[in-house]
Design a protein that fits this description.
This protein is an all-alpha fold. The radius of gyration is 15 Å and the shape is globular.
Length: about 140
């Protein structure tokens, strides 16, 4: 499957017509990875954009607690590395969905002592957005 042209964020990806076919081949967990990785982009999201991320996540089968686990243990060790060293790499590159998916799969297959650890700086930077997204998911599911 050939992915659509590079885009900066998952929100950009979801806006594209050709993303529907690419999105369809992802597993539920991979969809969560793609959407949660958006919280690591060096972009300040509006409330509306965070609500759209929450809406897409809310359509998946995971609980808010499971999303928190996926964010901390699966996405952050890979996507958070960017935020730990932003000056060394330069401006935010176009996000490669296959690459993030592959790197998360690779990290999960590593022995426990060889796994990449989450970047705490990245978690601080993304936690505010995650709290907002989490509250939108709960509202969408009528859990509040």
């Amino acid at each position: 499957m050939q992915w659509p042209a590079p885009v900066k964020t998952a929100l950009d990806f979801l806006k594209m017509n050709e993303s529907e076919q690419a999105w369809a081949i992802l597993t539920e967990r991979e969809k969560a990875w793609v959407l949660l990785s958006d919280l690591f982009v060096d972009t300040t999201y509006t409330e509306n954009e965070l609500a759209r991320i929450a809406s897409a996540l809310g359509a998946l089968k995971f609980s808010v607690e499971e999303f928190s686990y996926i964010l901390k243990k699966e996405v952050s060790p890979v996507a958070g590395r960017w935020m730990c060293r932003p000056g060394a790499i330069g401006p935010w590159p176009m996000f490669d969905w296959e690459d993030i998916k592959t790197k998360i799969h690779e990290n999960l297959r590593r022995e426990w002592y060889k796994k990449q650890r989450r970047c705490l700086i990245a978690m601080i930077a993304t936690w505010r957005s995650w709290k907002t997204v989490k509250s939108y998911i709960r509202k969408q599911r009528h859990e509040i």
